[in-house]
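Many introductory courses stop at the sequence. We go one step further.
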Amino acid sequence: MMNEYDENSFKIEEATIKEIQSAFQQNKLTSKQLVQYYLDAIQKLNPTLCSVIEVNSEALSQAAKADNDRILPGGCGCGCSCGMEGIPVLLKDNIATKDTLNTTSGSFALLNSVVPRDAGVIDRLRKAGAIILGKAGLSQWANYRGTNAPDGWSARGGTVKNPYVLTTEPGGSSTGSAVSVAANLVTVSLGTETNRSIIEPCSLSCVVGIKPTLGLTSRSGVVPISLRQDTVGPIGRTVSDAVYLLDVIVGYDPRDDEMTKEACQYIPLGGYKQFLKTDGLSGKRLGNMWHIFKVIYDDPTSPVPAVFQRHINTMRNNGAVVVNDLELNNFQKIMEGSEEALALKYEFKRDLGVYFSNLLKSPIKSLADAIAFNIANSDKEMTNKYNQSKFIDSEETKLPCSEYTAALSELTKLSEEGFHKLMRDNSLDAMVVPEFLGASILANGGYPGIIVPSGFDEEGVPFGILFGGLKGSEPKLIEIAYAFEQATKIRKPPSIQV
Protein backbone atom coordinates (compact mmCIF):
# COMPACT_ATOMS: atom_id res chain seq x y z
CA MET A 1 0.00 0.00 0.00
CA MET A 2 1.01 3.61 -0.57
CA ASN A 3 2.75 5.50 2.19
CA GLU A 4 1.72 8.87 0.79
CA TYR A 5 -1.44 9.92 -0.99
CA ASP A 6 -0.91 10.46 -4.70
CA GLU A 7 -3.73 12.60 -6.13
CA ASN A 8 -2.86 11.40 -9.63
CA SER A 9 -3.59 7.83 -8.53
CA PHE A 10 -7.16 8.47 -7.34
CA LYS A 11 -9.27 11.62 -7.17
CA ILE A 12 -11.10 11.74 -3.84
CA GLU A 13 -13.27 14.76 -4.54
CA GLU A 14 -16.81 13.65 -5.50
CA ALA A 15 -15.77 9.98 -5.31
CA THR A 16 -18.59 7.56 -4.45
CA ILE A 17 -18.40 4.83 -1.85
CA LYS A 18 -18.23 2.22 -4.60
CA GLU A 19 -15.34 4.06 -6.28
CA ILE A 20 -13.52 4.47 -2.98
CA GLN A 21 -13.91 0.77 -2.16
CA SER A 22 -12.56 -0.11 -5.60
CA ALA A 23 -9.56 2.17 -4.98
CA PHE A 24 -8.99 0.42 -1.64
CA GLN A 25 -8.97 -2.97 -3.33
CA GLN A 26 -6.62 -1.79 -6.10
CA ASN A 27 -4.19 -0.26 -3.58
CA LYS A 28 -4.71 3.20 -5.04
CA LEU A 29 -5.93 4.58 -1.72
CA THR A 30 -5.98 3.72 1.96
CA SER A 31 -8.56 4.62 4.59
CA LYS A 32 -5.89 6.55 6.45
CA GLN A 33 -5.11 8.65 3.36
CA LEU A 34 -8.81 9.25 2.82
CA VAL A 35 -9.31 10.42 6.40
CA GLN A 36 -6.23 12.65 6.22
CA TYR A 37 -7.56 14.21 3.01
CA TYR A 38 -10.83 15.11 4.76
CA LEU A 39 -9.07 16.37 7.89
CA ASP A 40 -6.96 18.66 5.68
CA ALA A 41 -10.08 19.82 3.85
CA ILE A 42 -11.83 20.57 7.15
CA GLN A 43 -8.82 22.55 8.37
CA LYS A 44 -8.86 24.59 5.18
CA LEU A 45 -12.58 25.20 4.66
CA ASN A 46 -14.23 24.89 8.07
CA PRO A 47 -13.17 28.40 9.22
CA THR A 48 -15.41 29.64 6.39
CA LEU A 49 -18.17 27.02 6.37
CA CYS A 50 -18.40 26.24 10.12
CA SER A 51 -19.95 22.89 9.18
CA VAL A 52 -17.87 20.73 11.55
CA ILE A 53 -18.04 21.30 15.30
CA GLU A 54 -15.42 18.77 16.34
CA VAL A 55 -13.14 16.23 14.65
CA ASN A 56 -12.45 12.81 16.10
CA SER A 57 -8.94 12.49 17.54
CA GLU A 58 -9.24 8.72 16.98
CA ALA A 59 -10.21 8.95 13.29
CA LEU A 60 -6.75 8.23 11.90
CA SER A 61 -6.20 5.27 14.23
CA GLN A 62 -9.64 3.90 13.26
CA ALA A 63 -8.65 4.28 9.61
CA ALA A 64 -5.34 2.48 10.17
CA LYS A 65 -7.24 -0.40 11.78
CA ALA A 66 -9.60 -0.52 8.79
CA ASP A 67 -6.59 -0.74 6.48
CA ASN A 68 -5.15 -3.59 8.50
CA ASP A 69 -8.49 -5.42 8.65
CA ARG A 70 -8.91 -5.08 4.90
CA ILE A 71 -5.93 -7.32 4.15
CA LEU A 72 -7.06 -9.99 6.61
CA PRO A 73 -9.44 -12.85 5.67
CA GLY A 74 -13.04 -11.77 6.28
CA GLY A 75 -12.50 -8.04 5.60
CA CYS A 76 -14.16 -5.78 8.15
CA GLY A 77 -15.49 -8.73 10.10
CA CYS A 78 -19.14 -7.74 9.84
CA GLY A 79 -19.83 -10.43 7.24
CA CYS A 80 -22.18 -8.22 5.27
CA SER A 81 -20.24 -6.84 2.30
CA CYS A 82 -21.76 -3.58 3.42
CA GLY A 83 -19.42 -1.25 1.54
CA MET A 84 -18.88 1.04 4.54
CA GLU A 85 -15.55 -0.48 5.63
CA GLY A 86 -13.03 2.33 6.08
CA ILE A 87 -15.50 5.03 4.93
CA PRO A 88 -15.51 8.28 6.98
CA VAL A 89 -18.88 9.46 8.33
CA LEU A 90 -19.75 12.75 10.03
CA LEU A 91 -22.51 12.79 12.63
CA LYS A 92 -24.93 15.53 13.51
CA ASP A 93 -23.96 16.74 16.98
CA ASN A 94 -27.10 15.32 18.60
CA ILE A 95 -26.09 11.68 17.92
CA ALA A 96 -24.19 10.19 20.86
CA THR A 97 -20.79 8.54 20.63
CA LYS A 98 -19.02 6.90 23.55
CA ASP A 99 -15.55 8.16 22.68
CA THR A 100 -13.51 11.35 22.87
CA LEU A 101 -16.17 13.32 20.97
CA ASN A 102 -18.74 15.47 22.74
CA THR A 103 -22.48 15.20 22.10
CA THR A 104 -23.93 18.64 22.76
CA SER A 105 -26.66 19.46 20.23
CA GLY A 106 -24.57 22.57 19.63
CA SER A 107 -24.92 23.91 23.19
CA PHE A 108 -22.27 24.57 25.81
CA ALA A 109 -24.85 23.33 28.32
CA LEU A 110 -24.06 19.73 27.32
CA LEU A 111 -20.31 20.15 26.85
CA ASN A 112 -18.44 17.42 28.75
CA SER A 113 -21.61 15.45 29.41
CA VAL A 114 -20.96 11.70 29.43
CA VAL A 115 -23.23 9.39 27.49
CA PRO A 116 -23.68 5.79 28.67
CA ARG A 117 -23.02 4.22 25.27
CA ASP A 118 -22.99 4.80 21.53
CA ALA A 119 -26.30 5.64 19.87
CA GLY A 120 -27.98 2.66 18.24
CA VAL A 121 -27.05 3.78 14.72
CA ILE A 122 -23.42 4.24 15.79
CA ASP A 123 -23.29 0.64 17.03
CA ARG A 124 -24.19 -0.40 13.50
CA LEU A 125 -21.68 1.96 11.87
CA ARG A 126 -18.81 0.68 14.00
CA LYS A 127 -19.72 -2.97 13.32
CA ALA A 128 -19.71 -2.15 9.59
CA GLY A 129 -16.17 -0.76 9.86
CA ALA A 130 -17.06 2.90 9.20
CA ILE A 131 -14.79 5.68 10.49
CA ILE A 132 -16.37 8.27 12.79
CA LEU A 133 -14.79 11.48 11.47
CA GLY A 134 -16.42 13.90 13.87
CA LYS A 135 -19.53 15.89 14.75
CA ALA A 136 -21.26 18.26 12.34
CA GLY A 137 -22.76 21.66 13.04
CA LEU A 138 -26.51 22.03 13.34
CA SER A 139 -29.28 24.39 14.26
CA GLN A 140 -28.86 24.29 18.04
CA TRP A 141 -31.05 21.74 19.84
CA ALA A 142 -32.18 20.64 16.35
CA ASN A 143 -33.83 24.03 15.87
CA TYR A 144 -35.99 23.67 18.97
CA ARG A 145 -34.59 26.32 21.29
CA GLY A 146 -36.29 29.43 19.98
CA THR A 147 -37.66 31.16 16.92
CA ASN A 148 -35.24 33.84 15.72
CA ALA A 149 -31.83 32.18 15.31
CA PRO A 150 -30.60 31.69 11.72
CA ASP A 151 -30.65 28.19 10.23
CA GLY A 152 -27.50 26.28 11.07
CA TRP A 153 -26.56 28.40 14.08
CA SER A 154 -25.32 26.89 17.33
CA ALA A 155 -23.46 28.38 20.26
CA ARG A 156 -20.60 25.88 19.94
CA GLY A 157 -20.25 25.88 16.18
CA GLY A 158 -21.31 29.31 14.99
CA THR A 159 -23.40 29.64 11.84
CA VAL A 160 -22.99 27.05 9.09
CA LYS A 161 -22.65 28.64 5.64
CA ASN A 162 -24.09 27.50 2.34
CA PRO A 163 -21.04 26.37 0.28
CA TYR A 164 -22.62 27.51 -3.00
CA VAL A 165 -23.61 31.04 -1.94
CA LEU A 166 -22.13 31.94 1.43
CA THR A 167 -24.67 34.70 2.09
CA THR A 168 -27.66 32.35 1.66
CA GLU A 169 -29.07 30.39 4.61
CA PRO A 170 -28.22 26.70 4.27
CA GLY A 171 -31.40 25.35 5.88
CA GLY A 172 -31.78 23.52 9.15
CA SER A 173 -31.27 21.64 11.30
CA SER A 174 -28.98 18.93 9.88
CA THR A 175 -27.11 21.79 8.29
CA GLY A 176 -23.49 20.84 8.89
CA SER A 177 -24.18 17.25 7.89
CA ALA A 178 -25.46 18.37 4.47
CA VAL A 179 -22.91 21.14 3.89
CA SER A 180 -19.94 18.94 4.82
CA VAL A 181 -20.95 16.30 2.28
CA ALA A 182 -21.63 18.96 -0.37
CA ALA A 183 -18.22 20.57 0.13
CA ASN A 184 -16.33 17.24 0.09
CA LEU A 185 -15.30 17.40 3.74
CA VAL A 186 -16.50 13.82 4.22
CA THR A 187 -17.89 10.95 2.16
CA VAL A 188 -21.30 10.68 3.83
CA SER A 189 -23.02 11.89 6.97
CA LEU A 190 -25.94 11.29 9.31
CA GLY A 191 -28.65 13.81 10.07
CA THR A 192 -31.90 13.72 12.00
CA GLU A 193 -35.33 14.95 11.05
CA THR A 194 -38.42 15.89 12.99
CA ASN A 195 -39.83 18.06 10.23
CA ARG A 196 -37.69 18.94 7.14
CA SER A 197 -34.37 18.90 9.03
CA ILE A 198 -32.72 16.50 6.55
CA ILE A 199 -34.80 17.37 3.51
CA GLU A 200 -34.32 21.16 3.62
CA PRO A 201 -30.53 21.49 4.04
CA CYS A 202 -29.95 18.72 1.49
CA SER A 203 -32.12 20.59 -1.01
CA LEU A 204 -30.11 23.77 -0.45
CA SER A 205 -26.73 21.98 -0.56
CA CYS A 206 -27.15 19.90 -3.74
CA VAL A 207 -26.92 16.56 -1.95
CA VAL A 208 -29.18 13.54 -1.45
CA GLY A 209 -30.96 13.03 1.85
CA ILE A 210 -33.16 10.16 2.95
CA LYS A 211 -35.74 10.68 5.68
CA PRO A 212 -36.62 7.06 6.56
CA THR A 213 -39.91 5.65 7.74
CA LEU A 214 -40.31 6.33 11.47
CA GLY A 215 -38.56 3.57 13.42
CA LEU A 216 -36.59 2.18 10.50
CA THR A 217 -33.51 3.66 12.21
CA SER A 218 -33.03 3.72 15.97
CA ARG A 219 -33.25 6.97 17.94
CA SER A 220 -31.60 5.60 21.08
CA GLY A 221 -28.76 7.90 22.10
CA VAL A 222 -30.08 10.80 20.02
CA VAL A 223 -30.90 14.10 21.74
CA PRO A 224 -34.63 14.18 20.99
CA ILE A 225 -37.34 16.61 20.06
CA SER A 226 -40.11 14.03 19.77
CA LEU A 227 -39.84 10.24 19.78
CA ARG A 228 -43.20 10.26 18.00
CA GLN A 229 -41.63 12.01 15.03
CA ASP A 230 -37.79 11.94 15.13
CA THR A 231 -35.83 9.84 12.66
CA VAL A 232 -32.13 9.41 11.77
CA GLY A 233 -31.24 9.44 8.08
CA PRO A 234 -28.29 9.28 5.67
CA ILE A 235 -26.87 12.07 3.51
CA GLY A 236 -24.66 11.54 0.45
CA ARG A 237 -23.64 13.19 -2.79
CA THR A 238 -25.43 10.43 -4.70
CA VAL A 239 -28.50 8.29 -4.15
CA SER A 240 -26.31 5.19 -4.09
CA ASP A 241 -24.08 6.57 -1.32
CA ALA A 242 -27.10 7.48 0.81
CA VAL A 243 -28.53 4.01 0.23
CA TYR A 244 -25.24 2.29 1.16
CA LEU A 245 -25.36 4.14 4.47
CA LEU A 246 -29.07 3.45 4.96
CA ASP A 247 -28.45 -0.29 4.57
CA VAL A 248 -26.07 -0.19 7.53
CA ILE A 249 -28.12 1.86 10.00
CA VAL A 250 -31.60 0.28 9.70
CA GLY A 251 -32.80 -2.43 12.06
CA TYR A 252 -34.15 -3.38 15.46
CA ASP A 253 -32.73 -1.81 18.61
CA PRO A 254 -33.95 -3.00 22.03
CA ARG A 255 -33.30 0.51 23.37
CA ASP A 256 -35.82 1.86 20.87
CA ASP A 257 -37.93 -1.24 21.12
CA GLU A 258 -41.48 -0.42 20.08
CA MET A 259 -40.77 1.74 17.03
CA THR A 260 -37.87 -0.28 15.60
CA LYS A 261 -39.68 -3.59 16.13
CA GLU A 262 -42.72 -2.33 14.21
CA ALA A 263 -40.58 -0.92 11.37
CA CYS A 264 -38.61 -4.15 10.89
CA GLN A 265 -41.48 -5.44 8.77
CA TYR A 266 -40.50 -2.91 6.11
CA ILE A 267 -36.83 -3.89 5.74
CA PRO A 268 -36.43 -5.92 2.53
CA LEU A 269 -34.49 -9.17 2.44
CA GLY A 270 -31.16 -8.35 0.81
CA GLY A 271 -31.22 -4.69 1.81
CA TYR A 272 -31.81 -1.54 -0.20
CA LYS A 273 -28.91 -1.55 -2.68
CA GLN A 274 -30.85 -3.94 -4.92
CA PHE A 275 -33.27 -1.09 -5.73
CA LEU A 276 -30.64 1.10 -7.38
CA LYS A 277 -32.12 0.60 -10.85
CA THR A 278 -31.69 2.93 -13.81
CA ASP A 279 -35.15 1.93 -15.06
CA GLY A 280 -36.72 2.58 -11.67
CA LEU A 281 -39.16 5.18 -13.01
CA SER A 282 -40.76 2.77 -15.45
CA GLY A 283 -44.38 2.06 -14.54
CA LYS A 284 -44.34 4.17 -11.37
CA ARG A 285 -47.42 6.29 -10.62
CA LEU A 286 -46.31 9.71 -9.39
CA GLY A 287 -48.56 12.38 -7.91
CA ASN A 288 -47.44 15.79 -9.20
CA MET A 289 -48.14 18.17 -6.31
CA TRP A 290 -46.96 21.32 -8.08
CA HIS A 291 -50.37 22.97 -8.21
CA ILE A 292 -50.81 23.12 -4.43
CA PHE A 293 -47.42 24.81 -3.96
CA LYS A 294 -47.35 27.07 -7.02
CA VAL A 295 -48.58 30.13 -5.10
CA ILE A 296 -45.10 30.27 -3.56
CA TYR A 297 -43.62 30.98 -6.98
CA ASP A 298 -45.33 34.25 -7.85
CA ASP A 299 -41.88 35.65 -8.62
CA PRO A 300 -41.64 35.35 -12.43
CA THR A 301 -37.83 35.29 -12.25
CA SER A 302 -37.75 32.03 -10.27
CA PRO A 303 -36.44 29.14 -12.38
CA VAL A 304 -38.05 26.51 -10.16
CA PRO A 305 -41.41 26.17 -11.99
CA ALA A 306 -39.84 25.71 -15.42
CA VAL A 307 -37.16 23.34 -14.12
CA PHE A 308 -39.71 21.33 -12.17
CA GLN A 309 -41.89 20.94 -15.26
CA ARG A 310 -38.90 19.78 -17.32
CA HIS A 311 -38.20 17.17 -14.69
CA ILE A 312 -41.81 16.00 -14.76
CA ASN A 313 -41.41 15.51 -18.52
CA THR A 314 -38.17 13.58 -17.91
CA MET A 315 -40.02 11.26 -15.53
CA ARG A 316 -42.70 10.65 -18.16
CA ASN A 317 -40.05 10.02 -20.80
CA ASN A 318 -38.53 7.40 -18.52
CA GLY A 319 -41.77 5.49 -18.18
CA ALA A 320 -43.50 7.09 -15.19
CA VAL A 321 -47.22 7.80 -15.13
CA VAL A 322 -47.61 11.32 -13.75
CA VAL A 323 -50.98 12.19 -12.23
CA ASN A 324 -51.80 15.92 -12.06
CA ASP A 325 -54.26 18.15 -10.18
CA LEU A 326 -54.71 15.91 -7.15
CA GLU A 327 -56.33 17.29 -4.03
CA LEU A 328 -54.74 16.79 -0.63
CA ASN A 329 -57.32 16.99 2.13
CA ASN A 330 -56.52 19.44 4.94
CA PHE A 331 -53.47 20.77 3.07
CA GLN A 332 -53.64 24.24 4.63
CA LYS A 333 -54.04 22.84 8.12
CA ILE A 334 -51.10 20.45 7.64
CA MET A 335 -48.85 23.26 6.40
CA GLU A 336 -49.98 25.60 9.18
CA GLY A 337 -48.72 23.03 11.69
CA SER A 338 -50.55 24.23 14.80
CA GLU A 339 -51.37 20.71 16.07
CA GLU A 340 -47.81 19.55 15.40
CA ALA A 341 -46.38 22.54 17.29
CA LEU A 342 -48.69 21.81 20.22
CA ALA A 343 -47.73 18.14 20.37
CA LEU A 344 -44.00 18.86 20.09
CA LYS A 345 -44.22 21.33 22.95
CA TYR A 346 -45.31 18.55 25.29
CA GLU A 347 -43.09 15.84 23.83
CA PHE A 348 -39.85 17.81 23.93
CA LYS A 349 -39.84 18.25 27.70
CA ARG A 350 -40.87 14.64 28.29
CA ASP A 351 -38.46 12.99 25.83
CA LEU A 352 -35.52 15.28 26.63
CA GLY A 353 -36.00 14.42 30.30
CA VAL A 354 -35.53 10.73 29.48
CA TYR A 355 -32.33 11.53 27.56
CA PHE A 356 -30.96 13.52 30.53
CA SER A 357 -31.81 10.70 32.95
CA ASN A 358 -29.61 8.29 30.98
CA LEU A 359 -26.51 10.51 31.00
CA LEU A 360 -23.74 9.37 33.34
CA LYS A 361 -22.62 12.96 33.86
CA SER A 362 -24.02 16.28 32.72
CA PRO A 363 -23.80 19.98 33.62
CA ILE A 364 -27.61 20.09 33.28
CA LYS A 365 -30.23 17.51 34.22
CA SER A 366 -33.50 19.01 32.99
CA LEU A 367 -35.03 21.45 30.55
CA ALA A 368 -35.37 23.92 33.40
CA ASP A 369 -31.61 23.61 33.97
CA ALA A 370 -30.99 24.29 30.27
CA ILE A 371 -33.08 27.45 30.41
CA ALA A 372 -31.23 28.62 33.52
CA PHE A 373 -27.85 27.79 31.91
CA ASN A 374 -28.70 29.87 28.85
CA ILE A 375 -29.62 32.84 31.00
CA ALA A 376 -26.53 32.53 33.18
CA ASN A 377 -24.30 32.12 30.12
CA SER A 378 -26.06 34.56 27.83
CA ASP A 379 -22.84 35.65 26.08
CA LYS A 380 -21.81 32.08 25.18
CA GLU A 381 -25.32 30.84 24.41
CA MET A 382 -26.36 34.10 22.71
CA THR A 383 -29.60 34.41 24.69
CA ASN A 384 -29.02 38.14 24.57
CA LYS A 385 -29.57 37.85 20.80
CA TYR A 386 -31.51 34.65 20.05
CA ASN A 387 -34.51 33.69 22.17
CA GLN A 388 -35.36 30.39 23.85
CA SER A 389 -39.11 30.72 23.53
CA LYS A 390 -39.69 27.07 22.59
CA PHE A 391 -37.73 25.95 25.65
CA ILE A 392 -39.82 28.17 27.91
CA ASP A 393 -43.13 27.11 26.36
CA SER A 394 -42.21 23.44 26.67
CA GLU A 395 -41.07 23.79 30.27
CA GLU A 396 -44.52 25.10 31.20
CA THR A 397 -46.24 21.90 30.01
CA LYS A 398 -47.39 19.03 32.18
CA LEU A 399 -48.55 15.54 31.18
CA PRO A 400 -51.04 13.92 31.09
CA CYS A 401 -53.09 16.63 29.44
CA SER A 402 -56.30 16.55 27.39
CA GLU A 403 -54.95 19.28 25.10
CA TYR A 404 -52.04 17.04 24.12
CA THR A 405 -54.28 13.98 23.63
CA ALA A 406 -56.57 15.99 21.36
CA ALA A 407 -53.61 17.21 19.31
CA LEU A 408 -52.38 13.64 18.77
CA SER A 409 -55.85 12.57 17.65
CA GLU A 410 -56.03 15.45 15.19
CA LEU A 411 -52.55 14.69 13.79
CA THR A 412 -53.53 11.07 13.16
CA LYS A 413 -56.68 12.24 11.40
CA LEU A 414 -54.77 14.72 9.24
CA SER A 415 -52.37 12.01 8.09
CA GLU A 416 -54.95 9.32 7.47
CA GLU A 417 -57.45 11.60 5.72
CA GLY A 418 -54.73 13.57 3.97
CA PHE A 419 -51.56 12.01 2.57
CA HIS A 420 -52.48 8.38 3.21
CA LYS A 421 -55.85 8.80 1.49
CA LEU A 422 -54.25 10.67 -1.42
CA MET A 423 -51.75 7.87 -2.02
CA ARG A 424 -54.23 5.03 -1.56
CA ASP A 425 -57.13 6.45 -3.57
CA ASN A 426 -54.90 7.27 -6.55
CA SER A 427 -52.71 4.14 -6.35
CA LEU A 428 -49.60 6.31 -6.19
CA ASP A 429 -46.07 5.05 -5.67
CA ALA A 430 -44.82 8.51 -4.66
CA MET A 431 -45.70 12.16 -4.58
CA VAL A 432 -43.37 14.61 -6.33
CA VAL A 433 -42.83 18.03 -4.77
CA PRO A 434 -40.51 20.94 -5.65
CA GLU A 435 -37.72 21.65 -3.16
CA PHE A 436 -38.37 20.68 0.48
CA LEU A 437 -41.93 21.98 0.60
CA GLY A 438 -43.58 18.60 1.16
CA ALA A 439 -41.60 17.81 4.32
CA SER A 440 -44.49 18.71 6.64
CA ILE A 441 -46.81 16.38 4.74
CA LEU A 442 -44.45 13.51 5.55
CA ALA A 443 -43.49 14.52 9.09
CA ASN A 444 -46.55 13.87 11.23
CA GLY A 445 -47.33 10.44 9.80
CA GLY A 446 -43.77 9.12 9.99
CA TYR A 447 -43.64 8.81 6.19
CA PRO A 448 -40.36 8.51 4.24
CA GLY A 449 -38.94 10.88 1.64
CA ILE A 450 -35.86 11.27 -0.56
CA ILE A 451 -34.57 14.65 -1.74
CA VAL A 452 -32.45 14.68 -4.92
CA PRO A 453 -30.60 17.63 -6.55
CA SER A 454 -32.69 19.15 -9.34
CA GLY A 455 -31.25 22.56 -10.24
CA PHE A 456 -29.87 25.97 -9.28
CA ASP A 457 -31.61 29.32 -8.99
CA GLU A 458 -30.49 32.56 -10.63
CA GLU A 459 -27.99 33.19 -7.81
CA GLY A 460 -26.53 29.68 -7.96
CA VAL A 461 -28.31 28.32 -4.88
CA PRO A 462 -29.23 24.65 -5.34
CA PHE A 463 -32.72 23.25 -5.01
CA GLY A 464 -33.92 19.67 -4.92
CA ILE A 465 -36.92 17.59 -5.82
CA LEU A 466 -38.70 15.55 -3.15
CA PHE A 467 -40.17 12.08 -3.59
CA GLY A 468 -42.38 10.96 -0.70
CA GLY A 469 -44.32 7.78 -0.02
CA LEU A 470 -46.21 5.75 2.54
CA LYS A 471 -44.51 3.89 5.38
CA GLY A 472 -42.11 1.24 4.17
CA SER A 473 -42.04 2.53 0.61
CA GLU A 474 -38.26 3.09 0.60
CA PRO A 475 -37.68 0.43 -2.12
CA LYS A 476 -39.96 2.26 -4.56
CA LEU A 477 -38.64 5.68 -3.55
CA ILE A 478 -35.05 4.51 -4.08
CA GLU A 479 -35.90 3.14 -7.52
CA ILE A 480 -37.57 6.43 -8.46
CA ALA A 481 -34.89 8.69 -6.98
CA TYR A 482 -31.98 6.74 -8.47
CA ALA A 483 -33.52 6.58 -11.94
CA PHE A 484 -34.28 10.31 -11.79
CA GLU A 485 -30.73 11.09 -10.66
CA GLN A 486 -29.19 9.00 -13.43
CA ALA A 487 -31.46 10.61 -16.05
CA THR A 488 -30.62 14.18 -14.96
CA LYS A 489 -27.23 14.20 -13.16
CA ILE A 490 -27.66 17.69 -11.71
CA ARG A 491 -25.17 17.38 -8.85
CA LYS A 492 -22.02 19.47 -9.09
CA PRO A 493 -19.61 20.50 -6.34
CA PRO A 494 -19.49 24.07 -5.02
CA SER A 495 -16.71 26.35 -6.18
CA ILE A 496 -15.40 26.55 -2.61
CA GLN A 497 -13.19 23.45 -2.83
CA VAL A 498 -10.00 21.95 -1.45
